[in-house]
Amino acid sequence: MNRRDLVKSILAVAAASSVLNSTTALAGTNERMPVLFLGHGSPMNALRDNAFTQHLTHLGKSLPTPRAIVVVSAHWVANKTTLSATMKPSTIYDFGGFPEELFQMTYPCDGDPSLATRLATHLNEFDGDIDKNRGLDHGAWTVLHHLYPDADIPVIQLAMSTQLTLSEHMEVGAALQSLRDEGVLIVGSGNIVHNLGKLNRAPNANNTDWSVEFDELIKSSLLQRDLGQLLAQDRSKHPLWNISHPTIEHYAPLLYALGASTSTDDIRFPYEGFESGSISMRSVLFS
Fold it and tell me: What are the TM regions of this chain, as residue ranges (predicted)?
């Protein structure tokens, strides 16, 4: 089956074979893990107690406890599909201009170099590789801080390759799908609408019409599994794409989560809302 046919089929059937072979697979679980896509927005959400962060806390308590977490963050883009293989990942402060309190926060979880190495091998079609020094960027730790505040679950990150098309990003997600049966939570972290040039930082700023329209368009497309829209195969036919995503890195993590889902998953939206008038904070739960 070629890649185009794979994209058409991954939402219709579950993957037939495990990403990890029988000699290296994690111990099986009785319950399939869900898949999450989370809007992460401002790094300041790590410090905030609001409706968005409260929903993250609720999710962490309501979902099955994972034995490991794989995060695809908008803030790690590389030349290859790379897995962080660090035993004790550092907390990366990949931002500036925020209060010192934010720079004092840490997320002292373990990594899982063994899992990262195995995944890199099984993603060799996408130039799978490992990085033994990579820590956790704010697309990962600011949301994990609320989901799993005890930092007691191993976390690895997966870098999105600049060499892949949107369809191929989705295929990588499909290749991760069987990890769900092995106790691994797959998390995409980005934003369904993300244009920093259009922010309105005024208190109680009204949401822009175009951001609301695009957010609802993607919600509807997810429910209908409309790949033509979700993969933006022809941007000229969908002009809202250009203003909603001047660059695509905050949208692409959604495709990893979508690829890791199956047609039997319910699609729910645990949180819907906006930040600074135009940043969609929508979260998506496939379970």
Answer: none
